[in-house]
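Exam prep: given the inputs below (a chain plus coenzyme A), describe the expected output before reading on.
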Amino acid sequence: MASNGICDRVAIVGMGCTAFGEHWDKGVNEMLVESSNEAMASAGITADDIDAYWLGTMGNLSGLTLSEPLKIQYKPVTHVENFCATGSEALRNAAYAVASGAYDCVMAIGVEKLKDSGYSGLVGSGATVTDGAVPTTTAPAKFSMLAPAYYKKYGLDPEKGREVLSRIAHKNHANGAKNPKAQFQKEVSMERITNSPKVAGQLGIMDCSGVSDGSAAAIVVRAEDAHKYTDKPMYIKALSFIAGPAEGPLSQEYDFTTFPEVVSSAEDAYKQAGVTNPRDQISMAEVHDCFTPTELVLYEDLGFSARGEGWQDVLDGTFELDGKLPVNPDGGLKSFGHPIGASGLRMQYEMWLQFRGEAGDRQIDSPKLGLTHNLGGQPGRCVSFVSIVGSERSN
Ligand code: COA
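Solution:
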């Protein structure tokens, strides 16, 4: 695959993120203003300094969704959408625009207000609630199939598998409990997770990410200009976006223990960033834990664990905050919910805080390289985004 990448050519010099949760008192406009104001303030700039904007949000038809609330004065605003990886797609396009030389300073911003839209994981994939006469499968049902497939392939006793999934949820809630911007800020016991009411297949409520509102934003400039804005820029090492052929649902052979799209985007990103051993070289990762078995499969698809060994790594504490490779230090989708356009940028926000030493009780010791992974769609029919960011510029 030909992907030249833009390693170390652009940097993030400011970020903002609203608290995620049920914002009955705020609309999309208020959240966009809040995250963009925080991002501009952290970069020490005003709207006059921004040349162009990329907005990630679902179902809106134009850039006016952003230009109106921010009162943007006759500048380009591009609306992008790519399933649940929409926020990451906004950042990717914004970064490429700066790398091309077209603009000096741009903003990538994502937003979603899901709570009062009626959206729920238990609504079928065709967005509206039906009368039950039309068969649909829900997001939890689609992802629930990963768990038994994984157990069968690797001979894992389902009870042990249950413990592994509960450990993943437990870890993410424990991290979220240390995060003042998370939707759920409480630790949840293993017992409560394991016995939570079933939603689909073997997945209980506590295996699912929540539903929330939120917005996050990033200011992107050329790497050589980064120190004009901040003493601690975050350099973009790799951005990879892969769309699969969507053949999974049509095939009896589809293997629910891997997302080929993730494998492909990870390989591409590692090549761009010069990473040869992700388990040793990546200091921390934010991954798309829409459901607990998704996170289990991602460990292996991203090369953090050998095939069939991710479950053992979970039990060994490899991905805990104090483990070898902390995954979802901010609490992940499990603690933040998943306001679609915002999630990819929320993941970058945690990288930003960690590199700056501003992650409070969640702080990881001297991180060098961080990875974010954003998935859109369902097993067998999805898009995948992987980014690698770092605290130092190597060229
Ligand atoms: N994890 C942890 N706690 C959750 C939760 C979750 N996923 N969902 C809800 N809760 C908590 C709420 O905070 C609330 O707690 P409280 O009573 O202490 O305030 C309680 O459970 C009930 O909340 P409610 O909003 O009524 O839950 P719900 O039954 O409407 O929603 C789910 C539960 C699982 C259906 C919902 O979280 C969901 O749809 N998740 C999946 C989202 C999804 O599919 N996203 C797409 C990813 S690809």
